[in-house]
C-alpha cells in the first residue's frame, strides 16, 4: 500500500472464488467487504487470477515480464512449485526485485512453518514483555508484526531498486515477521545480551527510567516521561513536593529505580488529584513530555492528526464516502497521494488484460472458463 501511495502501479493478484482472505475478516463490514481489507488496500488494482490454470499462469508471466517488483507472501517453496520462484523469475526478467514476506523467512529450521502476526508476537518475546507482572502475557493491541514486516519490505524494495539503478539487476528481498519483531526488542535485547537475564513484563514501566510510565488522573490515564535530572527537579516542583527532588532515596535515577516501591505511591497521590488536562498543562510548562492515553476514537478526532492529514476521505463507487488513514511519510517535492478506494475483487481484470494485449473476445473466454474471476 505504501508503494501504491507513492505512485507505484500495484496490481493485487487474488485467487478465486472470493479473493484475498482478509475480504472476509469481520465484522464490521461496509457494503459486504471487511473494514480490515479496506484499511490496507487503497490505491491498488485487483486482478482475480486462477494460477492453477495454464492460461492464468501465462497471464502472470506477462505481468512479470514488465514488472519492477514482485511481492509474495506464500510459505517458502509454494511459488517454486507453481513455477514462479526467484530463479525462474530472474531468468525471465533479471531486473525484477522479488520480495518474499513469510512468518519465519526463506532460511533456517522454521522456514516451512506457517506464521501470522500473533505467532510472531509470541515467539519474538514481545508478548512476554507486554502486560503486568501479576498477569498473563498480552498481545499488542495493533498487528505490529504485520505492520513492521510491511515497513521493512517497503525499505528493502526501495533499497533493491536503488541498487538496481547502479547494477541493472534485481535481487531477492527476504522479510520475516519473526525477524521484524525481534528487531523491535532493541534495549530489551541489549539487557539479555549483556547480562544473560531476560527482562520481565512490568506494565507500563521502563526498566531503566523512573518515572516513565502511565498514571491515573481524575478523568483518565496519562503517560509522563522524566528522563534527566533537570526534568526530575521540575517534576517534583510542579507536583508540589520539591523536597523529594533532593531526598537521597530518589535524588538520582539509580536511587529512584531501587526505591520505586516507595516513590510510585507518592506520585500516584498527586496525579490522582488532577485532571488529564491539568497534568498536561503542568508538565508542558516545565518541558516534561506527557500525553493522554487516548482511545482510538479520541486520537482519530484529534486536531494534530487532522492537521497532519492522517485521516483522509475517499469516494467508493458502491459505498460512497470512505475514511482511511493517511500517509505517515511526508515528502516535500514528491508527496504520496491517497486517491483510489480499495478495489472490488477483480475490478481491474479487463483493464489489466487489455494492457497486456488481450482482445475483448479473449478476455470473455478467460472469464467464462474461470481463469479470471470477480469484476
Total count of helical runs of at least 4 residues: 18
Gyration radius, in Å: 26 Å
Shape: elongated
Unreliable residue runs: none
Strands in their spatial order, largest beta sheet: 5-6-7
How many angstroms does the end-to-end distance come to? 21 Å
SS-based class: alpha/beta
Overall pLDDT metric: 96
Beta content comes to 5-15%
Tell me the major beta sheet. 3 strands, parallel
Helix-strand topology string = HEEEHEHEHHEHHHEHHEEHHHHEHHEEHH
Number of strands: 12
Your description of this structure?
The relative contact order is 0.14. The protein has helices spanning 2-5, 35-39, 54-66, 78-82, 86-92, 117-123, 126-129, 144-167, 177-183, 186-195, 229-239, 253-258, 260-271, 276-285, 296-300, 303-307, 349-355, 360-368; strands at residues 10-14, 29-30, 33-34, 44-48, 69-72, 97-102, 172-176, 212-217, 220-225, 290-292, 311-316, 320-325. It has 375 residues and is an alpha/beta fold. The protein contains 18 helices and twelve strands. The strands form five sheets. A three-stranded parallel beta sheet has the order 5-6-7.
Write a brief caption for the model.
This protein has 375 residues and is α/β, with parallel strands linked by helices. It has 18 helices and twelve strands.
